[in-house]
Design a protein that fits this description.
337 residues; elongated; Rossmann fold; alpha+beta; 2 domains; six-stranded mixed beta sheet
Length: 337
């Protein structure tokens, strides 16, 4: 591959090596640049590898492509047999690709010689072919290898403009979260607030109050207001910021100390809930990260999230726009231990 650009990133304790033979403006976003690995750590072995390659229009089809593709995909994890979807571009492809499966260009990229060889190499080289999944779209193919913790993404030449839009940056979060469960971690849709009692995860649906609560938090306490990384650590969990937060004022990480579901209310109130209720909310709100994973990775995410909720106090916080009593929240956590 010529003209390939490679970059190293660190999110939480994990290192990522990305390479691409086309420009990826989303990786140049200032929030991603803050995660670039410093030169002094470039020798460290990355935990995860991603590559993005462009397949030009007119790329020749491999010999016996249809038969070979069906044979390879039949041995993979089940998403290989689902036509559609993307980890790299989940926010971009639905409006761009309305190509029905009976069109001749459906799976065109997967049938090209270069991509088909990569699919077969990943499947044949895995000790368990079910640890490999292939998401095939009319304009993208993604080969995800859960043994080697690597993903190869192939995109059509017509996607360069889409890769330059702001939505492409937010689409990256699903790609970067892909192998987290295999590393004993998971990304969660929540704010992270570090207080004297530890770091609290504040969960809510979109527009449910996470950013508002973060804006009311004590100065210097906000790890992030939207997407946090939770990592199993000894007998507990640590919480790390990710690039996919609009508001973050605190570097480093914190030990998880509580999980709370936020609700907008006319006045402030806090109450305890069963860990199973907190888990059910978190799992449902974040299942887009886990639904298409192979069973071992999905089970790891399930077990880690359930252990988190069982290991810390769980509650529900109702608050008005100007009223959130953090002293009461901290006393609640300390008293519930």
């Amino acid at each position: 591959m010529t003209g390939t650009e490679a970059s190293r990133y660190c999110i939480g304790p994990f290192g990522f090596l990305t390479s691409s033979d086309i420009p990826l403006p989303a990786l140049a976003d200032p929030r991603m640049k803050r995660c670039l690995v410093p030169p002094s750590r470039l020798d460290a072995r990355p935990d995860v590898r991603y590559s993005v390659s462009e397949i030009p229009d007119g790329e020749p089809e491999a010999p016996d492509a249809e038969l070979r593709l069906v044979r390879a995909l039949g041995r993979c994890h089940s998403p290989a047999r689902i036509s559609g979807g993307s980890q790299l571009l989940p926010l971009l492809l639905p409006p761009l690709c309305a190509i029905p499966p009976d069109r001749g260009d459906w799976m065109r990229i997967a049938r090209s010689g270069r991509v088909l060889a990569e699919i077969e190499g990943a499947v044949d080289g895995a000790s368990d072919p079910a640890s490999v999944s292939v998401l095939a779209h009319s304009l993208t193919v993604e080969i995800r290898d859960f043994e080697r913790l690597s993903a190869s993404v192939f995109v059509s030449g017509g996607l360069r403009d889409a890769l330059s839009t702001p939505a492409a940056f937010y689409s990256l979060r699903k790609l970067f979260s892909l192998f987290m469960p295999s590393l004993g971690a998971f990304m969660v849709h929540s704010a992270g607030i570090s207080l004297g009692c530890g770091t609290l995860l504040l969960a809510a649906p979109d527009s449910g109050g996470k950013s508002t609560a973060s804006g009311l938090a004590p100065r210097g306490s906000v790890l992030g207001d939207d997407r946090m990384l939770v990592v199993g650590s000894g007998d507990g969990f640590t919480v790390h910021p990710t690039p996919w937060n609009e508001y973050s004022e605190r570097a480093g990480c914190g030990r998880a100390a509580g999980v709370f579901i936020l609700e907008k209310s006319a006045s402030f109130g806090i109450g305890r809930i069963d860990p199973r209720e907190a888990f059910a909310f978190l799992w449902q709100d974040n299942r887009t990260y886990f639904d298409d994973l192979p069973s071992p990775a999905r089970d790891s995410a399930f077990d880690s999230m359930l252990r988190l909720c069982r290991s810390v106090p769980c509650g529900r916080i109702g608050f008005a726009r100007e009223a959130l009593d953090w002293d009461v929240v901290e006393s609640f956590v300390l008293g519930a231990r």
